[in-house]
Design goal:
The structure holds 2 protein chains of 2 kinds. Chain A is mainly α. Helices cover 78% and strands 0% of the residues of chain A. Chain A is globular and about 50 Å long. The chains are: A mainly alpha, B mainly alpha.
Chain lengths: 167, 354
């Protein structure tokens, strides 16, 4: 059951990932990218990480892609501009080739082992994924968490300053 | 346990399909008759009769409307970007319907020795003796509602008309702003419940004879969540994206026939979902007097609460004039978000000392 589901989702993920780079219209590419993010969220659910899945949909598919769609809409890019940037395609395919090669080597050699650490699958089942993430984030990783929030604050202040002429 | 398919009893599949069908048909019928109820209620509030011609007191009106919309001519504007134009109504409609999967609409009922929790995405764990549901149900709903915005943005952009584009832009700005304050007002509830699972949140409200609702503990959050949700689903008084007077019904100006009907259905399905979520979060879900002892009472209480909230939505529509755009943004960013933050801080401080 789970394998079948995984195969279906993977098929959709790969097809929409290909559509992202082959679609002529940038809005359609963005839609395909949202679909890919959605499939990734499904993988997180299958890996017993529902919180990550919800955050993936909310942040990537929800927030970041809305920004992208806005940008595309307001700049009104309708022309296919890939012919102008053909040298970028070459570099892109080289990078893609090596990434695929790397992942094939890792899978064949069986190095992609299960993660080890204090948080086992049983523990996630017992406490729930959200609670464990929250616990770690607000105890062991409190400083990075706070630093990140300051970084975001700086970004917001910067955006306001850029947008407003008179403060 | 009888026949098993892929390691799960046959009853599991039957129960799942049955629950999906029941929930889907319930939402569909409610959507159809919500349009009728809205016209009727607003009519009576304005001392009119509302639809009267089709059937007894106009009861067949939704069916007549459906048939009419179904047989109207499909028009795709020649300068529209076709794929996005066709897919936008679907993107608006689907998130509105699938959010209902995680909302518990009743307790656990027993059929032929098999325990069935009345919630689509849940099963009864016999070994642990409790209902297992998706334990981030509330986040799932927030995530899905953040996807619904694409339908409207795309519809506005793909129509290639300035009214539609303005409507789409307004809608997305409004939905994104109010999503924040709706989410923040829910956090106060999560601080009390300590869980994101909707089943557990409903269970925690079952005390005091089924009246231990979060509405009484978090009245401010309940009020804010309901208002913000109204704004998020573009209901009056926040229906600026489709303001007829200035935008010629906004993002769906260029739509006709079934595609227009889909936007309409999405709007009402969103209303059902928002009312169901408010009922689950703040009005105790399916809880009520004797709901735990008599499982069949649960769905009745739940539907009664949802319909009451939907009536409130229509009442608001009949009563209040529309907001201006700058007032709307002012209300969202400068009133609701600070109040929601203050509510979280106060809840935290009080929770620490109790």
């Amino acid at each position: 059951m789970e394998t079948l589901f995984f195969l279906i989702i993977s098929f959709v993920a790969i097809v929409s990932a290909i559509l992202v780079i082959t679609c002529k219209n940038p809005i359609n590419s963005a839609l395909a990218l949202i679909m890919t993010f959605f499939c990734l969220a499904t993988y997180y659910v299958m890996l017993d990480a529902p919180f990550m899945a919800a955050v993936q949909v909310m942040v990537y598919a929800g927030a970041i892609m809305v920004l992208m769609v806005f940008t595309i809409m307001l700049l009104n890019i309708r022309v296919d501009s890939s012919k102008k940037h053909s040298h970028k395609l070459v570099f892109g395919s080289i990078i893609g080739f090596f990434t695929v090669l790397n992942s094939i080597i890792v899978i064949v050699k069986g190095r992609a082992a299960l993660p080890t650490g204090p948080y086992s699958g049983e523990m996630i089942q017992k406490f729930g994924h959200t609670e464990l993430i929250g616990r770690e984030m607000f105890t062991n990783f409190l400083l990075p968490f706070e630093v990140t929030s300051i970084l975001l604050l700086v970004a917001i202040v910067g955006a306001v300053i850029l947008a407003k002429k008179k403060i | 346990m009888g026949i098993e398919i892929l390691g799960l009893p046959l009853m599991y599949y039957i129960a799942m399909v049955a629950k999906v069908l029941v929930a889907f048909v319930f939402v569909l019928l409610t959507v159809a008759y919500a349009t009728y109820a809205e016209r009727k209620i607003i009519g009576h509030m304005q001392v009119r009769l509302g639809p009267m011609r089709t059937g007894w007191h106009g009861l067949l009106q939704p069916i007549a409307d459906g048939v009419k919309l179904f047989f109207k001519e499909e028009i795709v504007p020649s300068q529209a970007s076709t794929f996005a134009f066709l897919v936008a109504p679907l993107i608006a409609l689907i998130p509105a319907f699938i959010t209902f999967a995680v909302i518990p609409f009743g307790g656990v009922i027993e059929i032929a020795g098999y325990m069935i929790p009345l919630q689509v995405a849940a099963y009864y764990d016999t070994a642990a003796g409790q209902v297992m549901d998706i334990n981030v149900g509330a986040l799932y709903i927030l995530a899905m509602s953040s996807l619904g915005v694409y339908g409207i943005v795309l519809a506005g952009w793909a129509s290639n008309s300035k009214y539609s584009l303005m409507g789409g832009l307004r809608a997305s700005a409004q939905m994104i702003s109010y999503e924040l304050s709706a989410g923040l007002s829910l956090i106060a509830v999560f601080m009390l419940s300590g869980t994101l699972s909707l089943t557990k949140i409903v269970e925690l409200q079952s005390g005091m004879g089924g009246f231990d609702w979060y509405l009484f503990k978090q009245p401010l959050a309940a009020f804010m969540f309901f208002i913000c949700s109204l704004a998020e689903i573009n209901r009056t008084p926040f229906d600026l994206p489709e303001a007829e007077t200035e935008l010629v019904s906004g993002f769906c100006t260029e739509y006709s026939s079934m595609k227009y009907a889909m936007f309409f259905m999405a709007e009402y399905a969103n209303m059902v979902t928002v009312c169901a979520l408010t009922a689950t979060m703040f009005l105790g879900g399916w809880n009520g007097p004797f709901a735990v002892a008599v499982p069949l009472l649960g769905p009745i209480y739940f539907i009664a609460k949802v319909y009451f909230l939907m009536f409130t939505c229509m009442w608001i529509r009949a009563t209040l004039p529309r907001y201006r755009y700058d007032q709307l943004m002012h209300l969202g960013w400068k009133v609701f978000i600070p109040v929601a933050f203050a509510n979280i801080v106060v809840t935290g401080v009080i929770g620490y000392f109790i």
